[in-house]
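Input structure tokens:
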């Protein structure tokens, strides 16, 4: 993957990104398999017709999977034209780490908050703000 980041060819970068996304999502599936299983179980308990069942599965994919695909494509398109500098990569890793810590703390302290969109947005906003503060302090 490191060699692909330095590469000049967009198709190679795109294929590498797709492979990385598949591997990352496979790993995430182990952590987040609960929601899809609960969702499909709720569908089966409601004894829906086959068409309705697959319609709800398609809706789930539309709402859950397509935005992830859009994010991957946007990052591939925008980052395909240039490399991340070392400082940018550090900030990105810091943001990712702070977001994971925030979500982990939320899970420990207030697990109900994970199902609240506002709480999730606040965790993301707090991670962005804290990353910004750390970046400014480090530059100064």
């Amino acid at each position: 993957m490191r060699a692909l980041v330095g590469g000049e060819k967009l198709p190679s970068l795109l294929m590498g990104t797709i492979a990385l996304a598949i591997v990352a999502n496979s790993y995430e599936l182990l952590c987040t398999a609960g929601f899809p299983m609960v969702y499909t179980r709720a569908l089966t308990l409601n004894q829906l017709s086959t068409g309705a069942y697959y319609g709800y599965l398609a809706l789930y994919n539309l709402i859950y999977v397509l935005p992830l695909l859009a994010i991957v494509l946007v990052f591939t398109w925008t980052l395909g034209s240039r490399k991340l500098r070392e400082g940018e990569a550090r900030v990105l890793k810091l943001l990712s780490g702070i977001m994971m810590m925030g979500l982990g703390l939320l899970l420990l302290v207030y697990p109900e908050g994970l199902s609240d969109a506002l709480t999730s947005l606040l965790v993301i906003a707090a991670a962005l703000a804290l990353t910004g503060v750390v970046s400014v302090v480090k530059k100064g």
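The chain has a mean pLDDT of 82. Residues 9 and 91 are 26 Å apart (CA to CA).
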